[in-house]
């Protein structure tokens, strides 16, 4: 098997950089849009939801390309988790800016990311790696699903169907917050020996 490349020009890194750039484009688009109370169907908001879904669903593409093509690089290992978290945090802040989320939701989720990132640095400094738990994967899934639900729901015309979609999205976000706290505590417990 050939040695892993040392340069930046790999398919996986290109995908990661495109995802980061796409996130900034998404945020720029979102700043010019705002849901209207009692409005009709909004194509711009619906397309914004699709754009977010495309960015979110490619979160594992760069990792797959890096492994399958033996193109794992230090830059990729550094940028991939940043790209994963960037779109999620950006969308949460946009929803807060639209007055669709209470501030404690992004604070809890972002706070957990800082906690886990800090713990990973401590553990890595001791030459160890703590594997991501299934709880963290469920947390990510519920968070992304809730955000997509919010964006789609806000693009719909006012009515019972929109109410159902937004209510389901809010419940999914509550589950995501619970899983966020749970996964943060779980990661802290896994790292307690390294901290002591």
List the helices and strands and how they pair.
Elements: H1 11-31, H2 43-57, H3 61-68, H4 74-97, H5 104-125, H6 134-155, H7 160-190, H8 192-195
Helix pairs in contact: 1-2, 1-3, 1-4, 2-6, 4-5, 4-6, 5-7, 6-7
Q: Spans with pLDDT under 50 lasting ≥5 residues?
A: 1-5
CATH topology: Four Helix Bundle (Hemerythrin (Met), subunit A)
Q: Please identify, by name, the CATH architecture.
A: Up-down Bundle
* Domains, number: 1
Helix content: over 70%
Alpha-carbon Rg, integer: 18 Å
What is the CATH H-level superfamily?
CDP-alcohol phosphotransferase transmembrane (TM) domain
Structural class: mainly alpha
Number of strands: 0
Shape: globular
Distance between the termini: 40 Å
- Helix tally equals 8
Account of the protein in words:
The chain has helices spanning 11-31, 43-57, 61-68, 74-97, 104-125, 134-155, 160-190, 192-195. It has 196 residues and is an all-alpha fold. The longest helix is centred in the C-terminal third of the chain and has 31 residues, at 160-190. The protein is globular.
């Amino acid at each position: 098997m050939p040695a892993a490349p040392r340069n930046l020009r790999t398919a996986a890194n290109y995908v990661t950089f495109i995802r980061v750039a796409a996130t900034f484009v998404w945020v720029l688009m979102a700043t010019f849009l705002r849901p209207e109370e009692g409005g009709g169907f909004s194509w711009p908001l619906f397309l914004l939801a699709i754009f977010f879904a495309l960015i979110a669903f490619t979160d594992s593409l760069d990792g797959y390309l890096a492994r399958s093509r033996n193109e794992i690089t230090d830059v990729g290992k550094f940028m991939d988790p940043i790209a994963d978290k960037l779109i999620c945090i950006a969308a949460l802040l946009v929803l807060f800016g639209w007055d669709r989320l209470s501030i404690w939701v992004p604070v809890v989720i972002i706070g957990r990311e800082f906690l886990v990132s800090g713990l990973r640095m401590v553990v890595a400094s001791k030459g160890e790696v703590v594997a991501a738990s299934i709880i963290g994967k469920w947390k990510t899934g519920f968070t992304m699903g809730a955000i997509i639900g919010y964006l789609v729901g806000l693009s719909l015309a006012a009515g019972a169907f929109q109410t159902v979609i937004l209510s389901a999205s809010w419940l999914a976000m509550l589950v995501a917050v619970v899983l966020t706290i749970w996964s943060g505590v779980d990661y802290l417990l896994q790292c307690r020996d390294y901290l002591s």
